[in-house]
């Protein structure tokens, strides 16, 4: 397998750090993605999403949700069981996990709920006013010349 060195890309571009970071993540050698716990990502509206994670067997106290910059980290750690139970068959995995989601710019977590073994995390994109598109009025050539001679 080939590996790509993106260092020249970092030196030759200004302001495209996010694209380079995305390419770094995609080309990383981490081909095995964890499959536990299963999750869904739903689009609720044009600016809203919901991440639903199956966390059967975990209580709210066992779960942790944290947003660091543009990364959402969901983790769970089961408290130590006091009584050792002898299982004849153990098909429900209550093992600790950490799941990371990379969030786009201006996306923040607005809330989380835990109900019937599902952890639902609500996300919302809030674009600042300075970054929203704005309409520029086009002046006639005579108006511009008049403003220039006044100054």
The largest sheet, given as strand count, sense and whether it forms a barrel, is:
4 strands, antiparallel
- The largest beta-sheet arranges its strands as 1-2-7-6
Q: Class of the largest domain, according to the CATH hierarchy?
A: Mainly Beta
CATH A-level architecture of the largest domain: Sandwich
Structure description:
With 151 residues, the chain is α+β, with helices and mostly antiparallel strands. The chain folds into two domains: 1-32, no CATH class; 36-81 and 90-132, Immunoglobulin-like. 18% of the residues lie in helices and 31% in strands. It is built from three helices and seven strands. The protein has helices at 7-12, 17-27, 141-150, and strands spanning 39-43, 48-54, 63-68, 71-76, 97-102, 107-115, 118-125. The strands form two sheets. Strands 1-2-7-6 form a four-stranded antiparallel β-sheet, with no helix packed on it. It has a three-stranded antiparallel β-sheet with strand order 3-4-5, with no helix packed on it. Strand 6 (107-115) and strand 7 (118-125) form a beta hairpin. The mean pLDDT is 79.
